[in-house]
């Protein structure tokens, strides 16, 4: 039986990983870490700067490095980037070292959340609304094979972190 000392919140961009992660960490009395913010601190660049100057492949390498640097951290809730779990190495690492929670939303729900935040997101900044929905549908169809490996899946719309706490605590004590 696993005794979880780390929780990874996974899901598509805009699914509420950071908001839910902060609330959950506070409820548990654990620390919170936003993986994208850690990548920015480590590299000295913003995520859009990394993408434009070094490309997505370089960003993904940094992401894996920072993720693996968390191996010995305990009592921490980690909000991952939308693409973090989307390779076997990262997802297997998260499954091995903590409890994974997938915040699931439909493509339409994600679009309505992302339409106003496109400028800060390198993968979608130049897309119109129709292209954005198509992008979300295409990416989600590929990424869900990894997202669905999470131990727990919650509907990300109107997520009440207090009502989900008991479910999560049940996993933490196994």
Features of the shown structure:
single chain, 174 residues, alpha/beta, Rossmann fold, five-stranded parallel sheet, 5 strands, 52% helix, 13% strand, globular
Explain what the structure shows.
By secondary structure, this protein is of the alpha/beta class. The protein has a single domain, classed as P-loop containing nucleotide triphosphate hydrolases (Rossmann fold, 3-Layer(aba) Sandwich). Helices cover 52% and strands 13% of the residues. It has helices spanning 17-28, 35-43, 47-54, 56-68, 88-97, 107-114, 129-147, 161-172, and strands at 6-10, 31-34, 76-79, 99-104, 152-155. It has a five-stranded parallel beta sheet, with helices on both faces.
Distance between the termini: 6 Å
Strand content: 5-15%
Biggest sheet, strands in spatial order? 2-3-1-4-5
Helix content: 40-55%
Main sheet record: 5 strands, parallel
Please identify the structural class as seen in this structure: alpha/beta
- Could you say what the CATH topology is called? Rossmann fold
What is the CATH first-level class name? Alpha Beta
Task: Say what oligomer this is.
Answer: single chain
Mean pLDDT: 90
């Amino acid at each position: 039986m696993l005794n979880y000392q780390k929780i990874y919140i996974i899901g598509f961009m805009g699914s509420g990983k950071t908001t839910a992660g902060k609330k959950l960490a506070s409820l548990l009395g654990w620390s919170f870490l936003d993986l994208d913010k850690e990548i920015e601190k480590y590299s000295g660049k913003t995520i859009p700067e990394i993408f434009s100057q070094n490309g997505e492949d370089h960003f993904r390498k940094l992401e894996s490095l920072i993720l693996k640097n968390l191996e010995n951290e305990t009592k921490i809730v980690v909000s991952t980037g939308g693409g973090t779990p989307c390779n076997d190495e990262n997802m297997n690492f998260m499954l091995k070292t903590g409890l994974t929670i997938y915040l699931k939303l439909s493509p339409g729900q994600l679009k309505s959340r992302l339409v106003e935040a496109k400028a800060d997101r390198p993968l979608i900044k130049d897309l119109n609304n129709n292209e954005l929905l198509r992008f979300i549908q295409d990416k989600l169809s590929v990424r869900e094979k990894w997202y669905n490996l999470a131990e727990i899946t919650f509907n990300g719309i109107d997520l009440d972190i207090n009502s989900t706490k008991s479910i999560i605590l049940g996993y933490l004590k196994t």
